[in-house]
Amino acid sequence: MTEPRVALVTGGTGFVGANLVRKLVNDGWDVHAVVRPGSDLSMLADIEQTIQVHVHDGSTEQLIEIVKFASPQIVFHLASLFLAQHAPQDIAPLINSNLLFSTQLVEAMSVNGVRHLINTGTSWQHYENQDYSPVCLYAATKQAFEAVLTYYVDVARLAAVTLQLFDTYGPNDPRAKLFTLLRKTARSGEPLLMSPGEQLIDLVYIDDVLAAYLLAAERLLQNRVGSHEIYAVTSGQPVRLRDLVETYGRITGQTLAVEWGARPYRPREVMLPWNRGTVVPGWEPKVGLAAGIALMEQQSPRLPETIAHMAGG
Ligand SMILES: NC(=O)c1ccc[n+]([C@@H]2O[C@H](COP(=O)([O-])OP(=O)(O)OC[C@H]3O[C@@H](n4cnc5c(N)ncnc54)[C@H](OP(=O)(O)O)[C@@H]3O)[C@@H](O)[C@H]2O)c1
User: Fold this and answer.
1) How far apart are CA 282 and CA 227, in angstroms?
2) Residue 57, CA distances (Å) to 20, 34, 54 in order
3) Which atom of ligand 1 lies closest to the CA of 17?
């Protein structure tokens, strides 16, 4: 019998991370999750007994011990603090989560001779389609870690793949993102105040996002990544926000009281998502927007039965 593959995952209590942990477990991997002392494990409740959870105390030394114990073939690094806009008091948490913790992680890998990393970046590193122009400080911290990673790739011989994600969606998403707000609006009937809604949104269904992580993992395990490869996890088919809301309302059969133009656009609003990235070789999104929305909403008991039929298409 072949030994199971071993993964160490950060950010496993978050939306994408919890789905990735569940997928890895279902695919037969031994999974170690690094969490914080106060982490809410509810997203992992159904599989908590089948994985090993390590509570990181914040020190580099203890993270070295965790990585040594887990001895993973691949580290999937998804932990991050996301803030679309920051205030002065956010600087320390942003740097701690996105730069300090990330650097501690690659140091711990390097000390233990663990060579394969999948890092998670953001399309927001590319405002107005530039090679590098951060939409916000969060995106700048993602870029800063990629710069640090270059050191570990060049000097400590790490092999890394960075997946730069766009918008992601799927069932049981606790994040305060668009679909959560639309669901709430539909239920309460309260008007949702929105920007003029002309921006394009690039949404990738969670299963497709996970497929990109798994393909990247295969590239690393087959030693096809010499240094650091960067890929976009993009639908390639961005939709106007107004059309997205219209599609959501149509598929779910709900009336949405949206007041377009009631809010201004954000500073540096992304009107056109980055479209110059390349995707992981062999990867393409399989779940279209309408099917993805239907699949997502099947989880909701208050939605019409017809949605179940649409999800297959
Ligand atoms: N729309 C998108 O989904 C999108 C777009 C672009 C990039 N990304 C990137 O994709 C990744 C996953 O995103 P997500 O939306 O699934 O994240 P999420 O739901 O916001 O979850 C964030 C995760 O990071 C963990 N974390 C934060 N700071 C940490 C620290 N200092 N030490 C250890 N863990 C820490 C959180 O743990 P706690 O439970 O302790 O809070 C949580 O598990 C992130 O790197 C994000 O930047 C996502």
Assistant:
1) 19
2) 23, 10, 9
3) 16
